[in-house]
Design a protein that fits this description.
The protein is mainly alpha-helical. 58% of the residues lie in helices and 12% in strands. It folds into two domains: 148 residues, Orthogonal Bundle (Ribonuclease iii, N-terminal Endonuclease Domain, Chain A), CATH 1.10.1520.10; 72 residues, 2-Layer Sandwich (Double Stranded RNA Binding Domain). Strands 1-2-3 form a three-stranded antiparallel beta sheet, with helices on one face. The radius of gyration is 21 Å and the shape is flat. It starts with a helix and ends in a 13-residue tail after the last helix.
């Protein structure tokens, strides 16, 4: 464990004064339960979430001086999304260091977004408690700038349906509509094929094992095709 924490500190670019904080940050509740330990990373996760909210709020406020409150909130929410934090955790290779119970290991817990996101928040809290907000901000922002050079792009990545809705209303004066074309496969493992359109113009089609995921994928593809001008028949708002 000592060598693992040494490697993690090297990746973080931060040397802990209190190594117990880092050990707690990577201690999943499943490991603590199986080994009768009286601590895990849930309390640190709670604190880390608040620390990241402060850091991201300041970052968005300064980076986008022309954004209104609503837009700043959307960008911050996208950056603080579970999948966004999980991606930051993967950049730090956190999955390699999280201490999991046997059951969690067997079901791939080390690569689960929720586990990685929680661990990232916990590590941020550990750094904050071991140092101060300024140092924590420095480490967090270096990572964020490397992984998310254009945070606004997360709006379409993390919430493609919302982004498509907003884009279509603004440019075409209409909302997109989703239609389930088919449900195939076994009853216990169905595959949904979904189509998204505006009026009578088909934008994109996608398939997935969950309807919501298929809709999100279709929306994401539609946004890409629209912006690249690859969909015929669409008319701008003033031309309708």
């Amino acid at each position: 464990m000592k060598s693992d924490l040494t490697k993690l500190q090297r990746i973080l670019g931060y040397q802990f004064s209190d190594l117990q904080l880092l050990k707690e940050a990577v201690m999943h509740r499943s490991f603590a339960s199986e080994n009768n330990l009286n601590f895990d990373n849930q309390r640190l996760e709670f604190l880390g979430d608040s620390v990241m909210q402060i850091i991201l709020s300041e970052f968005v406020f300064k980076k986008y001086p022309d954004f209104a409150e609503g837009m700043m909130t959307k960008v911050r929410s996208a950056m603080a999304d579970q999948s966004s934090f999980a991606r930051l955790a993967r950049q730090l290779e956190l999955g390699e260091f999280i201490m999991l119970g046997k059951g969690e290991i067997e079901c791939g817990g080390a690569n689960r977004d929720s586990t990685l996101s929680d661990a990232f928040e916990s590590v941020i809290a550990a750094i904050f408690l071991d140092s101060n907000l300024e140092k924590t901000r420095e480490i967090a922002m270096q990572l964020i700038n490397d992984v998310y050079p254009d945070p606004v792009a997360l709006l379409s990545t993390n919430n493609p349906k919302g982004a498509l809705q907003e884009y279509c209303q603004q440019h075409f004066g209409k909302s997109p509509h989703y239609t389930t074309l088919s449900i195939s496969g076994e009853d216990h493992d169905p595959v949904f094929t979904v189509q998204v359109e505006i009026g009578d113009v088909v934008l994109a089609t996608s398939s997935a094992r969950k309807r919501k995921i298929a809709e999100g994928a279709a929306a994401n593809e539609a946004l890409t095709l629209i912006r690249e001008g690859k969909i015929e028949g669409l008319k701008e708002k003033g031309q309708l």
